[in-house]
Design goal:
The chain is of the alpha/beta class. It has five helices and five strands. Strand 1 and strand 2 form a beta hairpin.
């Protein structure tokens, strides 16, 4: 069994996959789309990865506002969660992703990734941080 972590953005989805022992998260890829509402190919790619990695659960980053309220991005994430559950038949857990982008930026700075190149990695690193937080918190005991 593996768990998939997703960082859902307006035009990208960062993807991370756990190891079979549910200890570590590894970045897999960033799925890109040209328009926010065009999700058919994104969902098809997620389904391919589910089969390829034998995924049994999805963790979706949930972008709450700093004051714990839900904004427009959170509403879109809830809609995406419902779509994922319907399309994949898998349980989808939400994981508070506040400050994961900031943490991803720090990781890239520490790794020496140039500022111009960071946008190419930030979503995948955010997905890793979302999934690793979930795994470390023991939420994976199903």
């Amino acid at each position: 069994m593996r768990i998939m972590g997703l960082d859902f953005g307006s035009k990208t989805v960062g993807v991370a996959i756990s190891d079979p022992l549910l200890i570590t998260a590894q970045g897999t890829e960033i799925i890109r789309r040209k328009e926010e509402n065009k999700q058919r190919r994104t969902l098809a790619r997620i389904e391919e990865l589910i089969v390829e990695y034998d995924v049994e659960r999805i963790v979706l980053g949930f972008p709450k506002n700093m004051n714990n309220t839900l904004g427009e991005r959170a509403q879109k994430t809830l809609e995406f969660k419902e779509t994922l559950e319907r399309r994949t038949g898998l349980p989808v857990d939400l994981w508070d992703e506040r400050l994961t982008t900031v943490a991803a930026d720090r990781v890239m700075i520490e790794l020496g990734i140039r500022r111009e190149d960071r946008k190419d990695y930030v979503d995948m690193i955010a997905a890793i941080l979302i999934l690793q937080g979930y795994l470390d918190n023991g939420k994976n005991s199903v």
